[in-house]
Fold:
Amino acid sequence: MAEPGERKNDLVQVRGERGGTIKLFLSGRIALDSISLYTEEIRKRLSDLKPKELIVDLTNIEYLDSSGALILLELEGRAKSQAIAFSFDNMPDEVHRIMGLINREALTTPSVKTEKKREYLLEEIGEASFAFYKDMRRILIFVGEILDALFHAVRNPRLVRWDDVLFYVKRAGVDGLPILSLLSLLMGLIIAFMSSLQLKQFGANIYVASLVGIAIIRELGPMMTAIIVAGRSGSAFAAEIGTMRVNEEVDALVTMGFDPTQFLAVPKVLAAMIVVPILTLYADVFGIVGGLLVGITGLDLTIHTYIQQTVNSVTLFDFASSLIKSVVFAALISGISCQRGLQVRGGAEAVGAAATSAVVSSIFLIIVADSAFAIMLYYVQWS
Amino acid sequence: MAVPEQDPIIIVEGLTARFGDDTILEGVNLEVFPGEVLVILGESGCGKTVLMKHMIGLFKPCEGRVLVKGIDLAKASDEERHRLRMEIGVLFQSGALFGSMTLSENIGLPISEYTHLPPEIIDHVVKMKLGLVNLAGYEHHMPAELSGGMKKRAALARAMALDPSILFFDEPSSGLDPVTAAGLDFLIKEINTTMGTTMVIVTHELASIMNIAQRVIMLDKNAQGIIAEGNPHELKEHSRDPRVIAFFNRQPPKTGKGEIQNG
Ligand SMILES: Nc1ncnc2c1ncn2[C@@H]1O[C@H](COP(=O)(O)OP(=O)(O)O)[C@@H](O)[C@H]1O
Ligand SMILES: [Mg+2]
Structure:
């Protein structure tokens, strides 16, 4: 078949007189990719003819798809609305069948659901705040549930699924070691390097060790670990539980008499609370090693003096608060992630959204908690 | 067969189910009698699953109540609920096997929760249950390693783990080929006759309905409730309701599989 463009002029032919009976001969292929061509052509040809009667001859149509049929029907509709008598001539059987497929009522049926109207800023702010409030409420309820479940678990350790706890300890902990060591080593290196540029000028090389030690142990170690755990495990927890919701596995658990919080969330939260402090210690060590590398290569310090200085400047209090912080971070990350998973409704796309939301909410909570700790620890330490 | 003399084992009274502003069911009344096979049918989205989830206590009624063995699910004490759970087995539409557990762990889970049997005995029971659904030897398979029909059967084995007196099925034959589906129907019928288990089955497989149902109820989306009830053969022959007629005749008349299997 030739390109539509080449035969453009033959596709629509008009016979008849202005103001009288016009016969329109259509030929070729009327399909989704060529309907604009036809509508254009027909409009042009008919524009100043003002017919009283319009007959459309379809003898030479090679192919017609449902969109093609639609424009023919629309042509009919338009003619009738202008009080022009309209008929089809020589309609092949196939064309007739295809036309029969089209339900003209569908074109004018109003949408069952009203289109979402444009919202005003104030309304949107209101809705967003309400959603936030509801979310906070749900989180608080969940916190209650999980505390209850944890308390229950502590009193009846036999009921805890320790196999699962172990599994998640391995998944969240051991499997996360490589990335965590790399990141903390680099973090230590960077801090030491940047600070050495300044401190060297004053001959205060040795204080690089103190700076790195305190920064890593008090802030960066727990924070970095928590963020990595949120990214690796938080999203995984949410996705896992969310998938179970979509597959009705959570419903199955309930019908078997298990409490989903107890069964699914508690092992994950316990595992996180066990493993994150250990990971934090690990991150602390690697961070300090990173600083040490800079110290002995760039600052003429010996291993012994560097470590001595670190030990002198970091107190036991710093260590303890770092570990407590990491336990709290762990509970926040795993708790919110499980909650996001249990909250999933609908299909697979909701699982992805839950995983994303788990990470974002975790990081938000980590930062809020860290700020709270900064203030609290300040008063605890100096009072 | 149908046993109207006995007290119903499940009573649904004036049940209304709403999600937000959407009313799915309104004022539904239903009784299920011990030992019967009741089929809930109706077009997709008319609320069959919602009704079933109310009967197993996963959803709380907005209005009305559901009594199982005389106990109101919404008000049951923990102990009563625990006892009822043992009496109810559910086969979900997707099977809902736990993906991270082997078949034997899946089936053993409810058993170890509700009994204090030693592991060897649980293993034995699990093997027996797998044998019942023709999956002997599959205890160490993960659900992901099974075909759709096998998953459904394994899920049935789990639903039957505690020998419940009521079994619920949500579209058991969806996604199965006709032969596998017929096999599952056969299994359902056999369990019903041999163990006297009450069966509540959501399905719209005409062949299954004619084959296994003793009584059907038909839900309708617009009516938001039950529009027809009765023996499937009688409904098919005598109902004048166009919605019922449309349902029973949607497959080519007289030569459909339903006819052959009725025989
Ligand atoms: N958890 C839910 N939240 C909101 N709407 C729901 C929920 N479950 C079901 N619905 C709605 O209830 C209607 C009936 O669903 P369902 O009972 O699953 O239909 P089916 O008869 O095909 O099993 C559907 O319109 C569905 O969108
Ligand atoms: Mg359903």
Q: What stands out?
A: The radius of gyration of chain B is 18 Å. Chain B has ten helices and ten strands. Confidence is low (pLDDT under 50) at residues 252-263 of chain B. The first strand of chain B starts at residue 10 and ends at 19.
